[in-house]
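Ticket #4471: structure export looks truncated?
Reporter: QA, pipeline team
Priority: medium

Steps to reproduce: submit the single chain below to the structure queue and open the exported record.
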Amino acid sequence: MIDIKNDIRFRGLEPFANRVWLSSPTMHGDEQRWVDDAIQTNWVSTVGRNIDEIEQQIAKYVGCRYAVALSAGTAALHLATKLAGEKLYGQARPNAGTLQGHTVFCSDVTFDASINPVAYEDGNAVFIDTERDTWNMDPEALRKAFELYPDTKLIVIAHLYGTPGKMEEIRKIADEHGALIVEDAAESLGAKYMMKGQWVETGTLGDYNCISFNGNNVFQPVRDAA
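Actual output as written to the record:
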């Protein structure tokens, strides 16, 4: 049990007066029509023109060459982690995961879907402290973690509640150690990040990038009209 009143880590932090909700799902009128269309045209499957279209649209929106639609952001994170493990360590035996015997640096404040794939692939998650500015992975803590675990070659970072982590700093540290990044951008579709003087969409900042259309994750980004 954490004693919030007396724990020095919480000094200076006041609880919110009101509850802060996640984004609520919104419907705009066409959702039912497209569901009916998929059923009527018998494209209730893993293929179909609607899937092809959303893959093309999302790739264009975030600014990458290709996108692959899966059943959920959770599935995307597992596939990304597995592919990263294969690229780093080769294809695993049938009874083993691609990360067996290897450490993976992970965000310590995130949904469990970001971290579970590390266990699925027999890796060992090492949690990196969160920094105050964004509530995301602390670049300085990441740098210290590489001093303790210098052989680590994979980082899984999540953008909490749609706020991007300090990816330019994290990318630099990863490159210094020859590490790959799995970017969990499930909660940040529509968010932009300044990288090397240019605004770029989250979901393009790692080596493997995942987004989600879960109702609580999708939001309408507010941009300066000027």
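Status: closed, not a bug. The export was complete when the record was re-opened. Leaving a note from the reviewer for reference: The mean pLDDT is 89.
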